[in-house]
Amino acid sequence: MVYEITDYDREKEKIRDFLTTFYHEEADDMKLFPYDKQIARLAEREQVGLYINMDDVNEYDPALYIAIQQNARRYHMLFGDVIDSLIQQKLGEKQPPVRDALDAFIFQRVYLDRKQNEDGSGTDQIQDLRKKYPPQLLQVKPMASVMTYTCDTCGCETYQPIAGPAFIPPLNCPSKDCVENRANGRLQMQIRTCNFFNEQVPVGSIPRSLTVNVIGENARACVPGDVVRITGTFAPLMRTGFRQFTGGLTTEVFVEAHHIENINMNSEDILGEQYELTDEEVEIVSQDNFYELLAYSIAPEIYGHLDVKKSLLLALVGGVDKNVNGMKVRGCINILLMGDPGVAKSQLLSYVDRLAIRSQYTTGRGSSGVGLTAAVMKDPVTGEMTLEGGALVLADQGICCIDEFDKMMDADRTAIHEVMEQQTISIAKAGILTTLNARVSIIAAANPAFGRYNPKRSIEHNIDLPAALLSRFDLLWLIQDRPDRESDKRLAEHITYVHMKGREPEREGMKPLDMSLIRRYIAMCKQKQPVIEEKLRDRLVDMYVDLRKDARNNKNSVFTSPRSLLAVIRLSSALARLRLSDVVQSSDIDEAVRLLEVACRASITTEQLKQHEIPLLDQAFAVIRDLYHSISDDENRSLPLQTVFKKCFAKGISEEVVQECINTYTANGVLMVDRQQRIVFTVA
């Protein structure tokens, strides 16, 4: 077998020709030399690294492209040598501009004069370092390529190139002054060059990790939870010390990253790249029933649960965060789905996890308090204690779906109390005192404590969750599996159609929207910061007073607290965002109250329904009567029809029922409607 010896000098010439002669043709027949321009920016210190597209290399020289793939590390060094020579060629006799605070030329002179004239009182003590630099969630660790030692006696600098992971620092200063005077000055180390960090990339459903070494400006290019595309070289890492004896000939592997592209779909990334909607998409989002169409498009293969899907849509959009004088009020919407097994709770959570721009999915039994918040780990390189973020930290500014929420241990469940309200995680472990951001919406699913839901028991008895945790959810949905011939028939037809056709049926002339369109539209909605006008203040106050009144009159009602008012504000802000509006309207508040009323009504047990089973006509008349008695003006005690419709709609009563109520009681002579469309009672 004959082996061909590669002439690397000739390969350098190919690389030089590629960097200097490759060009793209613009629309106006202009030639653009991308790499020659980058080299010029490198010479002027306006750019740190040079990025090469391998498609350009393949277009210019396919043989060079194949050679780079077969020996990436060698050609990485060859490219570096060629780029250094091209930079020197562009600079000529001119010195590079000083743009870096740690520039070697200016720093040596300044530090030499300062060191000879000062007594070193400005040196930081080891115990003070953590006060100035608190521990971070993801620490960027220094990797030295050249060590610089500064003598505290003469101020001379000594440089030591570092070729491997281990080195021995010099003990004495080698300068002429210290050698002649036998001063033997002490040498202090300074880290001069690049940084790197380790990133764990999960593959598939089996938890696996791969170490990635990131050097230079690519460090801090991503944060925990980001999805990145890494271009680099897969290389072995020889073990050192005792690990070399125990491991034998086996080696660890890592990826030496050359470039990191952040591809996780943040709202800003989507808006910066492809937020432009086509004419057809603009026509779709301009429909009057777009709110219902969006809700129907969430998990369309699941039959029914339209109001539940609407609330999940609002959780994806989210409310507006408020921070007044240091007091933070969250805008994230938390939702709890509870009910019988087999009602598609897990399927709803799974679809939301796929649809959300940034999300994490976990289960109650497979999660611990540490796994949800943050764990203290020992770094294998430095031996220091570091923090590794859990599911809630990785889902920051996103959605965290927790299935089988009731199966969690009580000690683990209490770890998320702070997250659900303060949106932070406080850590005090292993000498690390810090607070992590966890601005996340929690969507949880829980099963009844005794198999199926027992309608004769209250929610607290059916769902084994403490009241302090239940009150932190903005909406508590009860999804029951009640036998009904008509609904069971429609459900069976829907399921069989999905299994036979492989797609969901079109209902009521609505076709489910594409997931990409929904995701981009949600990203557009999140850019809005709607405000509530002063004129809606009384509307919110009256709504909250009515909720507290109902809770006081019914001892078995769902727990109502000031968090219920905040929930309505968050839901109405999310509805305003869906309309791409900067102002919350009264209709948004009405829809938010309706969702809250429907969720509470679904949570009422059968015994409570029997005690409070009132016909809809009587409910509508009770609302009209309460409004009539609330008027303080005795001379003009009349009600506008529009006010009556809005109040009844907020109570979950349709406009048809209200109109039937007015017609019925008008025929009985109890009330009448005048020409100004106002209701007047004829019987006091």
Automatic annotation (TrEMBL):
EC number: 3.6.4.12
SMART domains in alphabetical order: AAA, MCM
Enzyme class (EC, first level): hydrolase
Reactions performed catalytically: ATP + H2O = ADP + phosphate + H(+)
Span of domain MCM C-terminal AAA(+) ATPase: 290-495
Sorted UniProt keywords: ATP-binding, Cell cycle, DNA replication, DNA-binding, Helicase, Hydrolase, Nucleotide-binding, Nucleus
Record's keyword annotation contains ATP-binding: yes
A Gene Ontology cellular-component term: MCM complex
Gene3D superfamilies for this protein: mini-chromosome maintenance (MCM) complex, chain A, domain 1, Nucleic acid-binding proteins, P-loop containing nucleotide triphosphate hydrolases
Subcellular locations according to the entry: Nucleus
InterPro entries: AAA+_ATPase, MCM, MCM7, MCM_CS, MCM_dom, MCM_lid, MCM_N, MCM_OB
One BP term from GO: DNA strand elongation involved in DNA replication
Gene Ontology molecular function: any one: single-stranded DNA binding
PANTHER family: DNA REPLICATION LICENSING FACTOR MCM FAMILY MEMBER (PTHR11630), DNA REPLICATION LICENSING FACTOR MCM7 (PTHR11630:SF26)
Family statement drawn from the similarity comment of this UniProt entry: Belongs to the MCM family.
Protein name listed in UniProt: DNA helicase
Species for this entry: Wuchereria bancrofti
